[in-house]
Structures are given as structure tokens and as C-alpha cells.
Design brief:
Elements lengths: L7 E5 L8 E3 L12 E5 L38 E4 L23 E4 L45 E10 L19 E13 L6 E10 L5 E8 L15 E3 L24 E6 L9 E7 L13 E6 L5 E8 L6 E3 L46 E5 L9 E4 L7 E5 L4 E9 L2 E3 L47 E3 L8 E3 L3 E6 L9 E5 L7 E5 L5 E2 L3 E9 L5 E10 L4 E8 L14 E5 L6 E3 L14 E3 L1 E8 L6 E11 L9 E7 L4 H13 L4 E5 L11 H11 L2 E6 L2 H6 L6 H17 L6 E3 L14 H5 L5 E3 L36 H5 L4 H8 L2 E6 L1 E3 L8 E3 H13 L3 E2 L2 H5 L4
Parallel strand pairs: 1-3, 4-5, 35-36, 35-40, 35-43, 36-37, 38-39, 41-42
Antiparallel strand pairs: 1-2, 6-7, 7-8, 8-9, 9-10, 11-12, 12-13, 13-14, 14-15, 16-17, 17-18, 18-19, 19-20, 21-34, 22-25, 23-24, 24-34, 25-33, 26-32, 27-30, 27-34, 28-29, 28-33, 29-31
Helix pairs in contact: 1-8
Length: 881
């Protein structure tokens, strides 16, 4: 036979026969190389082209073999296998959902014959059994079924079909369970894999399980990625599983868990993404067990919630729970967590919650902090970098409940329960608007701030001496006759600055030490007997003042008396820059005479009447120009109108014990009462007075007990080194101490005589006026050694400080008692001399703050012999002429 001949050719030409005859002859017209060709002729009848039947159950009825790579059996059409007897005809069975899907290669047909008991001989299932003995070796994986994707957009799916009614309910009769009329065959599940999406718009690269949605359209519900969806590359280093439109439930019957597993030191995470493909840049939130290695004692593997930015970059952890302790942190790092947050509600210890407004009734709490002991802190707030908390809440051992406040460097302010129904702070307390007290108040310490109102017990109880009405007043208003000389510039009608009327007069120095003058020559004759000069002025820069003097005289000052009003060499200044001040100049303070005028050896001027010339003169230090504004030159009654023979106040600073032991006996013997300015912090310590001794000085010797400072450290640093609040605290506390201990003193002696301004620019004398009636300086160094009555400013009283034999000026005891010394000037002109002592020594003085007992006694004797009145400072200020 030729190559185009079949080995066996069977043709059934009789449509009435059911089986073809076997004929070995060529099939004319077609070239064939088949080993067996079976053809069923005709288009009707029920005959088969080939029936193979085996009578031997142990032998196959039909065997096909072929060389490797060849075809064993080719069917041009469907292979229909009847799995059980009585199977329905293939034409009665559905083949697919649409006509395009009806091509079928193999049909395995079974029937329900035999019932559903599933006993022997009644199995109605058609099966394909595939058996393999192949191990999974290289290039040989024991595959029993392969599907090939011949196009990038092809799919290889396993599909399940069922009958579905139009209303989407199962399309089966509920009684017979057979297919119901009107039901249609629909896909109900697919499993398969493909690379490119159906619409060619993206790469799917997944194996998926698909089921219909409510419209009947199949939707991917569960995916395992085969490759990178962005690049399309096949292969992934990590398993990527995706669900779509899914509620994920883990059904448990007892003890089962949903677990994310990895070794210790490996991060376990659940991430929430911002796109459908789970790209890294779409990460938004992450729940994780950290990669911190477990090192024992329950450390490591902490829990965090991490946030991502819009680029998918992890930001700081928003919520952290430390596994070893259960401590919770918000927006921090594990290493920073040192507090525990516990939220309980409705009296239970179950998982806490923040309740809504309707739940937050009076009997419940939205947040409760519980600590096992009083040593545990309930609340702690600080700013990054702070050394200590800015706000913290503690339960103290006594159970008081303390809130402490600070600035990040120190915790310096508190608020706590000090007793039943009592709230207390150890620090200052400020009320921004109103403070209402429904009951009584008790003051036991410092009461007021620098801007508050004082209680009557610590407010000044006496007023200043009356303002003296001038008999002559030059106020430098429009039309005045004063002129300027020696000044670099002048403005005799300055309307920008004034405290009276609408203008003042002004002169400016040249900055080179040349005196500048404001003068009136040839005026009406003045009688200054029993009178003194009052000057109201201001200076632009007090640090540049070399000398401020005032002259009265005749003949264009050819004959004159001179007062040196300002010659600063000590720690105090008469005023601050651009501050209006008042000076009073009496005959006890004249410095020089010229022409026909003279001063006697007792310090008394040769005349006090007939003056026609007046002059104010200022000189700079050659370090720069300054401006002097003058508002008034006036004539008022002098001290001699009240104290014709003068008055002396003997005062002591610091409360040295020698005052009681060495000074008091002499003064008692002469009937003199002094003034003691006390440093409260020194009382009762070695070398200082006691409170009891101060009471004896007041009650049995008539002394005035005033304040030098409340704190010894504040005294040593001077008020000018502190803020206004600090100075107010010291002055107020000192006055409160005086009142509470029965002392009636109304004055304060500024530490170091410094009354200018606090570090925050508040006048110290202004603060003192809240609590006292006078403030004493050491301004004798200005050149005006005696004070006046009334004083120009009762809070800037001039005094002769540190009377001691170690001095070389007017405050040297021998000079003071000599003819023409301070005591003579005071007695002869009716001045007020305030003498300041610190320590009285039984031997010679060695430092400026010491005065020997012999020198002190000689001064007291001289005062007595000259008939000068001796009064405490406050007693002098009580006198009104």
C-alpha cells in the first residue's frame, strides 16, 4: 500500500446498519495516513461509527500508543464520555453561556439515575482520575494538567455554571431540585490566571477567584499576584494577596486565631493603601509589631500605628504601646514613653472609651487616671527639649493632689489641696479679671502684687507734708524775661515738653565742659530770709552731669551765693534721664560766696535779702552734650520756719547689735530718739539686734523702727538688681513684718541708697510709696548736705551716710562738730540734717561703715550743746508750719 493508504478503513454505507464494515481498501479522492479510519455514513439513524467493547474486565477495550512527540488520538469534534448507564444525550446538555463559548472538546456525562443514597452502584458522578508518580525534580514538576496562554490577553479559567432565575435566586425547583422552568445557565464561579486585563488598559498578572456581583457580572474576589503590575514583569520576591469588594471574616468555633507570623526581630505589619494595586507610594497607614528584638523581660516586638505621607513615606509613629509595660504613647518614640494611660467608663475595667456628651453625666467620667500608689504621676506635659515638665499632676503621699507648672527648665509653681475644702499655692497667684470672695479672708504672708491694692494694715498711714505755696514763682511761660548764655543752643519757649502751663525754658551744653546758664538779671529785689529756693527741672542724660548749681546775687552776680545742687560721686543720682524732679535749696546748704557776700565760720550767710539776680547753671563732663529743661524757680518757706534752730535725725542702717549696746545708752541719756532701718533677715543672728530689742527701742526709747530690706540677700544686691515684682515682694513683706510685730515705722532706707529703677524699668521710689510714707537715700554726695522741710521729695530724702573717722569729707566726725561744720550750718540756718550710722565700735573705726563710740558720743554732745532738735525721720515729717 502506498503512503496515502490507511491500514484499516471502515465505512458504513448502509444507514440502516449500526456498525461499519471493516474494509481494507483505499478511500478514493483523499490522501490519508491514518492507521484506522472509521466513518458513519448518512445523516440519520442512531448507529455509531465505531463501538469497542471489552468482555474482559481486566483488559482495556481500546489502547492508543504513539511515539514520544506524536499524536496518540486526534478527535475532530467533541469526545463524549458516558460515565454511567442511562446518561442523557449530549445534545440535551448545556455547553456554555453564549454561542461563542460552545466549543467543547470533552464531555463527561452522568445522570441522577440511582438516586442520592450514594451507595454501591448508585454513584452518579462523572470523573477524570489522573495518577502521577513523578517527583518534583528540575524541569519535571509532576504536572498532571497544563494550560498555555497563547496571547498576552488570553485567560485560562476553570468555570462553574449553575441555573439562575431572573430574580437571581437559584434556578431549581425547591421540591424536585431539578432545573426550574425559565432558569438560565450562568457562570457562578471562575478560577484562573491571566496576564493582561481584558480591556488591555493594565497588567493584572494574577491568579484569581471570581464570583458574580448582584448584576451577574463576574468580579475578582481573591487574587495572588504572579508579577509586578507596574512593570508587567513576571515573578515576585514576596507573596502579594489581594481581595476586592470583600468583607473578610475568620470563622471561629473556639480558640482559632488570625495570625501574622514571622521570627522575632522581624516586623509584622498590616498596611492600608491609597490605590487599587497596592503600590508602595500609595501606603497611608500601617499597623505593625516592631522589629525590635525580644531581649527578655517582655521587651521588644512593641505595637505601633504608623502614618505615611502622600508619597508613601513613613512618618512618625502616631500610637505606640510598649509590650514590656503596656505604657502608651501618642506621636512619640518607644524610648520616650514613660507614662500609662487608662480610660475606664461605667465603673467597669473593660476596654475604655471616650464617651459622648449624652454619656458624660455627672455620675460617670470621660477620662479617669488611676495609679496604684501616690508616687505615680497622673499627667505629664512637656515640649521637646525640656529638662522638666511644664505641667504635671501628682497624687502626693498625703493625697492632696498637686498640679505643678514650670517653664521647661524648672518646676517652680504649684496648686494643691492643703486641707479639707482648701486649695493652696506656694507661689504668686494672679486673677485676670475679678476675684470674688463669698466668705472672709485671712492674710498670713505676702498678699499683693505690684499692681494691686494694699490692705489697710500695710498701706501708708500718714500723708506727706503739705506742698508749700510759693511767694515768688518763675514758671517760664510766654513773655518771661530769662535769657541764656554759654549754651551751645537754647529754646526759651519750649512747647514740646512741660509739666506746667504750655512751655518751659531749655539750654543745651556744648559737650566740652563749658557751663551753660539760664539767668535773670536786674529783677525785683528778693528777701530770702526764712525762705528757700525750689527748682523744678529735668536733664536729658544724668550720666553727663558734672555740676548743677544755683546762684542768687546782685550786680550781674558780681556778688553771689552759690548752691551746688548736683555733683555726683556716689551711688545715687538725683533723677533718671528725662525725669522731672524737684530740688529745694536752703541756707544750710550754700557752698560758696563771692564779691561782697560771705559765709561766717559758723556757716551763716552775710545777708539773706536784696537779691536781684538769679541763675541756673549746668556743666557737662566733656563726654557729650546734655539738655536742661527748667519749669520753675520758686521761693517758699524754709525749714527754719518750723525748726528755727534746725533739726537732726540720727538714723542707723542694718540693725547691728552695737546700736542697742553702745548708741542707745548715750541717746537715752540726752533724750534723743533715733530711727532704726532694719534688715529683717538679719534679726536674731550673730551680731545683730533681736526683735525684742527693737521693741524696747520703740516702746521705751521712742525710736522709729523702719525697713532697710526684708531679705539680706536682696539688700546686698541692691533693689536696682531686681525686677519690679521682686522689689515689691521685698518691700511689701518688710512692711507686713513691721505691722505684724507691732512696729509703727513709716519709712524705708533704700539698700545702698539706690532708688532709681528696677531691671524692668520701674521706679523703686514709686514702689516704696505703696507701703511707706518716706524713702531715704544717701544723696548728700550731690553737694547739698542738708535736707529741707518740707523736702522736695519725701521718697528721696537726702542724708549724710557712713559717718566715720575713716572719711575725709563733711561726714568725718571731727569736721562735723568743728566750727562751720554741718552741725553749725544746721543750727545757724535752720536746716534738717539726717546722719546715717551703721556700726558703733568700742575702739577706733577701721572701715567706713564703723563709727567709734567716742566719735559718736562727741557728735551727740555737740548736737545737744547747740540746741538742735533731734527727732526720728517720720516725726520730722509730721510737723506742719
Amino acid at each position: 500500500m502506498g503512503s496515502d493508504a490507511e491500514r484499516l478503513h471502515l465505512i458504513n454505507h448502509d444507514p440502516d446498519k449500526t456498525t461499519a464494515d471493516i474494509r481494507n481498501r483505499p478511500f478514493t479522492g483523499v490522501a490519508h495516513t491514518h492507521a484506522l479510519y472509521v466513518q458513519q455514513a448518512g445523516t440519520s439513524g442512531a448507529g455509531q461509527a465505531l463501538v469497542i467493547e471489552s468482555k474482559n474486565a481486566a483488559a482495556p477495550a481500546f489502547t492508543v500508543s504513539s511515539p514520544v512527540g506524536g499524536e496518540g488520538l486526534r478527535l475532530n469534534g467533541a469526545l463524549v464520555v458516558s460515565a454511567v448507564p442511562g446518561a442523557p444525550a449530549p445534545s440535551t446538555l448545556p455547553l456554555g453561556g453564549t454561542s461563542a463559548a460552545r466549543n467543547t472538546g470533552i464531555q463527561l456525562i452522568s445522570s441522577f439515575d440511582g438516586g442520592e443514597d450514594n451507595s454501591s452502584g448508585t454513584d452518579s458522578t462523572a470523573r477524570i482520575n489522573i495518577y502521577s508518580y513523578q517527583r518534583a525534580a528540575t524541569h519535571s514538576f509532576g504536572e498532571v494538567q497544563r494550560m498555555y496562554a497563547m496571547r498576552r490577553d488570553s485567560k485560562q479559567m476553570i468555570a462553574w455554571y449553575g441555573w439562575v432565575n431572573p430574580d437571581k435566586t437559584p434556578g431549581y425547583d425547591p421540591v424536585t431540585r431539578d432545573v426550574a422552568p425559565g432558569a438560565s445557565c450562568k457562570p457562578i464561579a471562575w478560577i484562573g490566571a491571566h496576564i493582561e486585563a481584558n480591556d488591555h488598559a493594565s497588567m493584572h498578572n494574577h491568579i484569581s477567584i471570581e464570583v458574580p456581583d448582584t448584576t451577574g457580572a463576574l468580579q475578582t474576589r481573591f487574587e495572588i499576584l504572579l508579577g509586578d503590575r507596574a512593570t508587567g514583569k513576571i515573578g515576585l520576591d514576596k507573596t502579594f494577596i489581594i481581595t476586592n469588594d470583600a468583607d473578610f471574616a475568620v470563622r471561629q468555633s473556639g480558640g482559632e486565631s488570625f495570625r501574622v507570623v514571622a521570627p522575632s526581630g522581624t516586623e509584622k505589619r498590616i498596611e492600608f493603601m491609597g490605590d487599587a494595586f497596592g503600590t508602595d507610594s500609595s501606603r497611608r497607614w500601617k499597623l505593625r509589631s516592631t522589629s525590635t528584638a525580644e531581649s527578655g523581660l517582655d521587651a521588644g516586638s512593641d505595637f505601633e500605628i504608623v502614618r505615611y505621607n502622600d508619597s508613601g513615606v513613613a512618618q512618625s509613629a502616631t500610637f505606640i504601646v510598649r509590650r514590656s509595660s503596656g505604657l502608651v504613647g501618642f506621636g512619640t518614640a518607644v524610648s520616650d514613653i514613660d507614662s500609662r494611660i487608662t480610660v475606664r467608663q461605667d465603673g467597669t475595667a473593660s476596654a475604655g472609651k471616650f464617651v459622648s456628651t449624652t454619656e458624660g453625666t455627672a455620675s460617670t467620667a470621660t477620662l479617669r487616671v488611676e495609679t496604684p500608689t501616690a508616687a505615680k504621676r497622673g499627667l505629664d506635659y512637656r515640649i521637646t527639649g525640656d529638662a522638666v515638665s511644664r505641667v504635671r499632676m501628682d497624687a502626693s503621699v498625703s493625697g492632696s493632689g498637686t498640679i505643678t507648672f514650670g517653664d521647661g527648665a524648672t518646676a517652680d509653681t504649684n496648686l494643691f489641696r492643703s486641707a479639707a475644702n482648701t486649695l493652696r499655692t506656694d507661689d504668686s497667684f494672679v486673677v485676670g479679671t475679678n476675684l470674688t470672695v463669698s466668705g472672709t479672708t485671712t492674710a498670713t504672708g505676702r498678699i499683693l502684687g505690684p499692681t494691686g491694692y494694699a490692705y489697710g494694715t500695710i498701706a501708708p498711714s500718714r500723708t506727706d507734708p503739705a506742698w508749700r505755696v510759693p511767694s515768688v514763682s518763675h514758671q517760664f511761660q510766654s513773655g518771661h524775661s530769662w535769657t541764656a548764655s554759654g549754651a551751645a543752643s537754647s529754646n526759651l519757649n519750649k512747647t514740646l515738653e512741660f509739666v506746667r502751663g504750655t512751655q518751659c525754658a531749655s539750654i543745651t551744653t556744648n559737650g566740652s565742659g563749658t557751663p551753660a546758664n539760664l539767668r535773670l538779671f536786674g529783677g525785683p529785689s528778693l528777701n530770702l530770709t526764712g525762705k528757700m529756693i525750689r527748682l523744678i527741672a529735668r536733664i536729658s542724660d544724668v550720666s553727663r552731669v558734672s555740676d548743677l548749681s544755683f546762684f542768687v546775687g546782685t550786680s550781674s552776680l558780681a556778688n553771689n551765693f552759690k548752691w551746688r545742687a548736683w555733683q555726683v560721686t556716689g551711688s545715687s543720682q538725683l533723677s533718671s534721664n528725662n525725669e522731672w524732679f524737684t530740688l529745694t535749696l536752703d541756707w544750710g546748704s550754700i557752698n560758696a560766696a563771692a564779691g561782697s557776700f560771705s559765709i561766717s565760720s559758723a556757716g551763716v550767710p552775710s545777708t539773706t535779702t536784696g537779691f536781684t539776680d538769679l541763675q541756673v547753671q549746668i556743666t557737662d563732663t566733656s563726654t557729650g552734650a546734655l539738655t536742661l529743661d527748667v519749669q520753675a524757680v520758686e521761693v517758699i518757706d524754709a525749714t527754719s520756719e518750723t525748726f528755727p534752730g534746725g533739726v537732726v535725725s540720727v538714723v542707723f542702717d542694718d540693725s547691728d547689735e552695737s546700736v542697742y549696746d553702745l548708741a542707745r545708752p548715750k541717746m537715752d541719756a540726752l533724750g534723743f530718739a533715733g530711727t532704726q532701718y532694719t534688715i529683717v533677715g538679719n534679726l536674731g543672728t550673730a551680731g545683730y539686734l533681736t526683735t525684742a530689742e527693737l521693741r524696747q527701742l520703740q516702746d521705751f526709747s521712742g525710736w522709729e523702727i523702719g525697713l532697710h530690706s526684708y531679705s539680706s540677700s536682696v539688700h546686698n544686691s541692691r533693689y536696682t538688681s531686681f525686677t519690679a515684682a521682686d522689689v515689691d515682694d521685698d518691700l511689701r513683706s518688710g512692711k507686713q513684718w513691721l505691722v505684724s510685730n507691732g512696729f509703727r515705722g513709716e519709712g524705708v532706707a533704700y539698700p545702698g541708697g539706690e532708688y532709681q529703677r528696677t531691671t524692668d524699668g520701674v521706679g523703686i521710689d514709686a514702689i516704696a510709696s505703696r507701703y511707706f510714707s518716706h524713702g531715704r537715700t544717701i544723696l548728700w554726695q550731690s553737694g547739698r548736705v542738708t535736707e529741707t522741710f518740707t523736702p522736695a521729695n519725701s521718697f528721696r530724702l537726702r542724708a549724710i551716710s557712713s559717718v566715720s573717722d575713716t572719711q575725709s569729707g563733711a561726714n568725718k566726725p571731727s569736721s562735723m562738730v568743728a566750727a562751720g561744720g554741718l552741725l553749725d550750718k544746721c543750727a545757724g540756718n535752720g536746716g534738717w540734717l539726717i546722719l546715717v550710722f551703721h556700726k558703733i565700735t568700742s575702739g577706733a573705726a577701721t572701715v567706713s561703715t564703723e563709727c567709734s563710740q567716742s566719735d559718736f558720743n562727741s557728735i551727740m554732745d555737740a548736737i545737744s550743746s547747740k540746741g538742735i532738735t533731734v527727732l526720728p525721720v517720720s516725726e520730722v515729717l509730721r510737723h506742719y508750719s
